[in-house]
Every structure is written in C-alpha cells, then in structure tokens.
Design a protein that fits this description.
Layout lengths: L3 E2 L1 H8 L3 H9 L5 E3 L5 E4 H19 L1 H13 L4 H5 L6 E5 L3 H14 L4 E5 L2 H11 L3 E5 L7 H9 L8 E6 L10 H4 L3 E4 L3 H22 L1
Parallel strand pairs: 4-5, 4-6, 6-7, 7-8
Antiparallel strand pairs: 1-3, 2-3
Helix pairs in contact: 1-2, 4-6, 6-10
Length: about 220
C-alpha cells in the first residue's frame, strides 16, 4: 500500500467526512503536504496512528474504572435550578455521536437528571438521519465531526424537513470557536456545548429544551 493517501482515502479509512479530515490536517492531527499540482496528500502512518489512538480511547472508555470516574464527576456536578424545577415527562432524545466515551457520558447525565426520558443513540450521521425520521425526537444532540456525514451537513439536511421544527437542537463538539467557523452556516442560533464543559452545561440546556418543548405544545 502507498505511504501517502488522498483526503478521500484518509476519510474512508477513518470513517469521517472529507471536511472533517481537512480540519484534522489544519489542526496538525494528521501529517499532510501538497503536491506540486496543489493536491493534498496525507501520511498513511499518521492515519493509522489516529486509528490506534481512537481504539485506545474506546477501550479506555469501556474500562469500569474510567466509567466509575465519569459517574463520580456526574454525581458531583450540582444540577442547576432549572433542572431541579423542571417536570421531566417522557421526552425522546436522539444523540448522534461516534465517541463511546461521550455516548456514555450523555447517557449518565440524562439518566441522573431526567430518568423518565428515553435516549436513542446513533453512531454516525447516516444512521442518525434514518433514526430521526423514525423517532422524530423532542431533543436532538449532534456532534459536528461524524463518520459518513458531518454534523453541519446533517443539520442543514434536517432543516429542509418540516418536522425538524418540532425538535430542540443542541450541538456538542471538541472544536473551539475558531475551528467551528466552517460550520457557521449550520450553527447560527444553535446552542453549542464545548465537550470539556459537557457535564456542567448539558443538564441546564436539556431543561431549557424541555421548557421550550412544553411551551410549544401549549401553544398548539
């Protein structure tokens, strides 16, 4: 196999959208260069290292000791007033997220603060689109960097469907504000949580989403 990959080949190996791979290159997470003709080439070795690191993260996230640490962090987080006073009905939440670690973390947060809610999880954007049509969730939580289709494209696609207006949208991402610039077209007016602040911020936003959903139902 060649030691260098096209952006498309790297995206296929990583299970990501081409744009997501380009962002990884811009953040120096992948070693890349341009040919004299201006075409981007990516080191196969750096892609394989990324795959090994991802596998290690997923193994670590599945470790009972790590899950215990996450539970402790969730338990120690004081629920905001909005969460304490909200009446948690049988809401349906769809999480579209490829990281097992963050799937587990969101699941723990929902279970702790809103035990009556039903959480559905999709591992990639394509599956997420299909599940959205089936579930039509009250709340949609989407990561930006997803395998198959990036979160920005997914959100834009869903907005073309009338039923999307009934869902409260929350975006979670590991990208800082500057790195989110290419997705500004999809994120305008959307609540965005930087993943390191997920435990502190997600419960309050879920409570706000519940209140907004209940207000919408009353108006109908």
């Amino acid at each position: 196999a060649s030691d260098q990959l096209t952006t498309f080949e790297a995206a296929r190996m990583l299970g990501l959208a081409v744009r997501s791979v380009q962002l990884m290159v811009d953040r120096n997470e992948l070693q890349a260069w341009k040919t004299p003709g201006g075409h981007r080439r990516i080191s196969r070795q750096s892609v394989e290292q990324c795959l090994r690191a991802r596998a290690g993260e997923e193994t670590q996230a599945a470790d009972p000791a790590v899950q215990g640490t996450v539970r402790s962090a969730v338990a120690s987080a004081q629920p905001p007033h909005a969460v304490k006073t909200a009446v948690a009905g049988a809401m349906h939440v769809l999480l579209i997220e490829d990281s097992i670690h963050f799937q587990n973390l969101v699941s723990l947060l929902v279970t702790q603060h809103f035990p009556q809610w039903q959480l559905h999880i999709a591992n990639d954007g394509i599956t997420g689109l299909a599940m959205y049509g089936q579930i039509q969730p009250d709340i949609l939580i989407v990561d930006i960097l997803l395998p198959g289709i990036d979160g920005g494209t997914l959100i834009t696609t869903l907005r073309s469907h009338p039923q999307f207006a009934k869902s409260q949208l929350i975006v979670v991402t590991s990208l800082d504000e500057a790195q989110r610039a290419p997705y500004a077209f999809a994120l305008q007016g959307v609540n965005v949580i930087y993943k390191p602040r997920l435990v502190a911020e997600l419960p309050a936003l879920l409570a706000q989403s519940l209140e907004a959903r209940q207000s919408s139902v009353r108006e109908e």
